[in-house]
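To the wet lab folks,

You asked to see what we're planning to order before we commit. Fair enough. Below is the target structure as tokens, and below that is the sequence we designed to fit it. If anything looks off to you, flag it before the synthesis order goes out.
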């Protein structure tokens, strides 16, 4: 069985990843998808890149170095709010401090957009996923989902900034979408399917 280590400890993320990569075969072998913890990899990686792609690759290469012989995937994702000069961007997880609850981060973004209406509230989620193969070769896929910042938190699904990210064509926040709906249109879903295609080839 081929092991794939996904460089994250986020359980919400792992659930999405396992669902989208379910049934993946590489070179005729079924794949087992492990988090860093499940793979016994305990390292802190300093993500000092200037783009989502650079950070994903830094993370993937560091974990691949620690876990010889496995395929390693790593993502860097975040929220870009156009009116706020694309903040929080690559600092989405660290925005207002890593231990700050997302309810506080979300409330802060909503308050900074007070008086801003309609299309001016445009935003997107970005996800870059890097893959490092056992032979050291590496590649990356990036995908986005466009939407707007809502006026309040809505929905109990998803995680992070999902409750304030409104998808006009669904009339819902990403936290109100079913898991299937979200995985079909999300930035991570699109990037994972692109990575899956590359891995299968």
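Sequence we intend to order:
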């Amino acid at each position: 069985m081929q092991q794939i280590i996904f460089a994250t400890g986020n359980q919400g993320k792992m659930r999405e990843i396992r669902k989208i990569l379910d049934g993946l075969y590489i070179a005729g072998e079924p794949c087992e998808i492990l988090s860093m913890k499940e793979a016994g990899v305990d390292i802190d990686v300093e993500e000092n890149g200037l783009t989502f792609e650079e950070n994903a690759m830094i993370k993937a290469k560091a974990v691949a170095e620690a876990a010889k012989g496995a395929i390693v995937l790593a993502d860097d994702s975040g929220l870009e709010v156009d009116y706020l000069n694309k903040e929080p961007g690559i600092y989405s997880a660290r925005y207002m401090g890593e231990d700050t609850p997302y309810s506080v981060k979300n409330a802060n973004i909503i308050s900074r957009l007070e008086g801003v209406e309609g299309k001016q509230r445009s935003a997107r989620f970005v996800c870059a996923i890097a893959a490092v193969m056992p032979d050291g070769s590496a590649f990356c896929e990036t995908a986005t989902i466009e939407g707007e910042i809502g006026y309040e938190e809505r929905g109990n699904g998803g995680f992070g900034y999902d409750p304030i990210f409104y998808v006009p064509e669904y009339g819902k926040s990403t936290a109100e979408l079913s898991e299937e709906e979200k995985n079909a249109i999300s930035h991570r879903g699109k990037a994972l399917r692109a990575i899956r295609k590359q891995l299968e080839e």
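Structural context that might help your review: DSSP finds five helices and nine strands in the chain. The first strand starts at residue 2 and ends at 6.

Thanks,
Computational group
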